[in-house]
Amino acid sequence: MLTQINGLHHVTSLASGAQSNNDFFTKTLGLRRVKKTVNFDAPEVYHLYYGDAEGTPGTVMTYFPFPGARRGRAGAGEVATTAFSVPTGTLPFWEERLSTKNIAGLEKGSRFGENVLAFRGPDGDGFALVESNDDRAPWVSTDVPEEVAIRGFHSADMRLSGRGADASAELLEFMGYQKEDSDGNVTRFRVPNGNEAQVIDISKVDAPMANQGAGSVHHIAFSVDNRETQLEVRKALMDTGYQVTPVIDRDYFWAIYFRTPGGVLFEVATNEPGFDRDEDTAHLGEALKLPSQHEHLRDVLEQKYLEPIHD
Q1: pTM for the whole structure
Q2: DSSP assigned state of 139
Q3: Considering Cα of 184, then 83, then 221, then 176, what sign does the dihedral take?
């Protein structure tokens, strides 16, 4: 069993437009845009990062906004819901705020004894706010007070078919997660002594496979401290039979990827070097930062492909 995993590092999804995506996370949810860069493999597409003041692992939601992308189709083999942590007693504030902003899919409920407010993003993305005792310091925006602000990730809910759900549960346990509880078709796993973003739920469903598009989660990333521990995780996964990519430099972290038995793409990302490697913390996310191999494309990317984002 692995002991190096801290919990979630980031969650990366697909969107149909950069401006609407930026507005939703910064103006509706009150997160900070911590990086404005591009997709390493498709530099004509932004890669936008949102999180707390520093982009701390466990707080960062990232997006590839492909202009005009069709919506994904929900189903098995995907992360169905990304949940954020908010302080206990603050869901009434958020319900009123999201309702006023005409956010779709608002639904109050509870799961594993915690109060939950589900809602949809601009492309039908599945989100939830969960009340919890979370002492992480939030990013404070102009109209979301500190006492109610989002602290970071609470959990991710993977919707998986029966056989894929069982095999993915075994994978999580190998990665150091412990089965905590079950509620109907949902089983909760938690990594002990991790960061606050340490919960994964598996919902076992009988459904066709999902078809990715705008609003779909592309992959979820798990946090490790550094490159040394990442290599330990990679070797252990490969020794177990998983096909794991070589280590890839993503400028702000190093990454490895592998596909789970249930179909979800997992990443293991380092906490180093962080988002301040090329920007002062006070100005994170303001300027367009390009990977060195794409810097020569700056003029054509800005003039032809990347829509201006107005803050």
Answers
A1: 0.97
A2: P
A3: negative
Taking the mean position of all CA atoms in its chain, how far away is CA 114? 20
Q: CA-CA distance, 147 to 155, in Å (whole number)?
A: 21
Helices and strands, number each (H, E), in the chain: 5, 16
Report how far residue 62's alpha carbon sits from residue 35's, in angstroms, rounded to the nearest whole number. Answer: 9
Q: What is the 3-state secondary structure (H, E, C) of 141-202?
A: CCCCCHHHCCCEEEEEEEEECHHHHHHHHHHHHHCCCEEEEEECCEEEEECCCCCCCCEEEE
Contact 51, 101 (CB under 8 A): no
Q: What's the pLDDT tens digit per position in 238-276?
A: 999 999 999 999 999 999 999 999 999 999 999 999 999
Does the domain made of 8-305 have the CATH classification 3.10.180.10? yes
| Residue 145, token pair as written in the block | 């007070």
Across the chain, the runs of DSSP E, i.e. the strands, are: 8-15, 32-38, 46-51, 60-65, 78-86, 107-111, 114-120, 126-131, 152-160, 178-183, 186-190, 199-204, 217-224, 248-249, 253-259, 265-273
Give yes or no for a contact between 226 and 6, defined as CB atoms under 8 angstroms apart.
no
- Give 7's contacts (C-beta < 8 A, 6+ positions apart): 58, 153, 191, 194, 195, 196, 197, 198, 199, 222, 223
